[in-house]
Design brief:
By secondary structure, the protein is of the alpha/beta class. It has two domains: 1-51, 2-Layer Sandwich (Signal recognition particle alu RNA binding heterodimer, srp9/1), CATH 3.30.720; 65-127, 2,3-Dihydroxybiphenyl 1,2-Dioxygenase, domain 1, CATH 3.10.180.10. The protein is 18% helix and 26% strand. The chain has two helices and seven strands; from the N terminus they run E-H-E-E-E-H-E-E-E. The strands form two sheets. The protein has a four-stranded mixed beta sheet, covered by helices on one side. The longest helix is centred in the middle third of the chain and has 13 residues, at 75-87. Residues 1-119 form the VOC domain.
Amino acid sequence: MVLSVRDLDVSVRFYRTVLGLRPEYPEQAEGPPLTVLPLPGGPDVALVQQRDNFKGRFDSRHCGLGRLTLAAANLGVLEAWEDRFTRMDVEHTPVVHTEEGSTLVFQDPDGTELALFVPAEPDTGED
């Protein structure tokens, strides 16, 4: 998965500092600057800064990625992320709980909407 960013250095710093991802810098013969961020147990996210970038923040009303949702291990972990985002002044919404699960929505420096999600515990009928 590739996300276009306005400033590669700012975005790499966000994903490294806020989410704890370890960037990889692949050798490139040509093309725009690119950094790969492997996700634990998931696909890689590549950040690319296009040379002709228009420098505007992402707007979800335009075609493109609506939201990138990542899994969190459990509700406790999700709530710990919410506390971390608050301490780090990361723009986010409070955790929302629904029948499907719990979601924490936040934004990267370009305004791309990201979320952490934990599915609801299955109802075993035992009460």
